[in-house]
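Thread: zinc ion complex, take 2
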Amino acid sequence: MGRIFANALIGPAAFASAALTFTGSPATAETGAPVATRTPPVSLHITRAPDNAVRAEYRLARPTTALHFAPHLDGYRARDWQTAPQEFRWVREGDDERIERVDGKPFTQLSFDIPVRYRSLEKAYAPFSPFSDGGLLVYSGHFQTCSALPCKGTEPLAITVAAQGATIGVGGKRTADTAAFVSREEGTYVYIGNAEPAATAGFLAIVDPALQPELRDHLLQSLPQSMRDFAAIYGELAITPELYVSLDPQPPAQSGLSRQGGTLPGQVFIHLYGDGWRKPFALGEVLVLDWFFAHEAAHFFQRAGTNDVIGPDSQAWIHEGGADAMAALVMQDRGDAERAYVDRRIAEARKVCAAGLAQVALNAASRAGRFDLHYQCGMLIALAIDADVRRGSGGAKGLHDVNRRFFATVRSGTPWTRASFLAAARRTGLSAPTLATITAITGQKLDDPAAQIDAMLRQAGLDQGLGQAGLDQAAP
Ligand SMILES: [Zn+2]
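Output below.
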């Protein structure tokens, strides 16, 4: 393949507008001092390319010998970002990677053709979520780059997007044909397509038009319901989140009801990529989607006003398990089917958490490739806190009160840590024995995790619903 140059859709004006938005530090801008606009060291122009691909063109203000990317995404870029192989090559740099010319010479321009395919990446956002009507979401974060080391992958990148005849949605705005923005920190999903947002109070919702109508209607109620439930407890959010539900146009065979989703600041997204989503199924089979939305809605309330400061991966049980517990608490009030579903998840979490902690300490789980334990164990911990505080207060207080106190301390500058979370729990009334057990479970490798988890649940009074048989099975 030859080297690819600028697409006809790229206009110099569109490109310059991105450069203009790339200003000095926000602090400078807020104090009203003159803000010097400058050409960014690297900028990116994204256009749609033939054969269901996008073209990504990097332009550099000064010649450079390499573009650095972090992390390496297990070789995703090297596999899917197609450029002239005889001219450029990818080189691993520890957990990161760089692209450079084979002859080592500097360059000022580099283009890739990238197929728009759903890819499930380990602990990273999917690069694209295709919609069945030809629309797509592009994740900007994987494009963030540096022309010199060190490179964290969170460096701001001026991006322009051009797609003639399409709407481009980014940063809560929708524009026709072109858009310019600066991707920063963890990046954002950019929508390119022609779907009209659904009329849903409080949301800008793009839901795949090929979704079965019952499911579509259900989803358009489910997320707002969770948002209302949490707003009643934690107060209204200051933002109008975007909701994206995409249905893969080419689902892999035998993939059932597969899905992947998450949140970024101001966005909730879920990609449905199994062939099962196109076959008849009962809504009772997809309570997992209600759970997903409740979990993601919980993240908005965790993050509200905290400038998205969430603690390190080693303490992810606080926000991931905490969001699962918040989901459990609001869902079990909705009906019998939901309550039974929540009970099943708690019983399952107990098994998975006990077996997992027999292998690895919770605070080392992420490094050991067991990030999932933060959900399972973290939910049990948060629900134990809820039950314990509830019992101690005669039902007057629970996890939500612990959270309100914790979020308030984080908003006022306390770091989002295990110590500050457990301090908030203690001040809300968490009993000393349950606190001691949670401190052990979250701080060290356990000799007998099943027994210690069951002790935590029993101390909190949460073991009733699980049945004594279940407890005995797991205990030695
Ligand atoms: Zn989460």
